[in-house]
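PROTEIN ENTRY
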Amino acid sequence: MELHINGATVTVDAEPDMPLLWVLRDGLNMTGTKFGCGIAACGACTVHLDGQAVRSCVLPVAAAQGKKIRTIEALGSADKQHALQAAWIAEQVPQCGYCQSGMLMAAAALLERTPRPTDSDIDAAMTNLCRCGTYQRVRKAIHRAANNLQGSST
């Protein structure tokens, strides 16, 4: 089966009903996407599928075939951080850090479709769970990133 992941086409040997999460983590050693709950409730496994934030723990890999998959590994790099990654650090969002890759991917999808989100937009889009409770910092970081992406300063 061919998948389009982070701009590259890869061939994977997986059963069609295997969750995309396990193909990414176990089949391709892309461990940035995390397993949290396995029932699409927590969002630690969030990736983009054709630009939409999806929970990869319940998405059969066959449903991702022919679509563009983007994982946390393609959000930014050590040399060039995405505005969200820089904002996450500036606002001191991460505590334990486990949920952060899923949070960042959900936030990136939000900013791609809503460049200037309101608090209500953020609250509606960010359904990921954070056991550390950094939701207010997440909101501030998303606003900071939105401003930076639009060329404004915070």
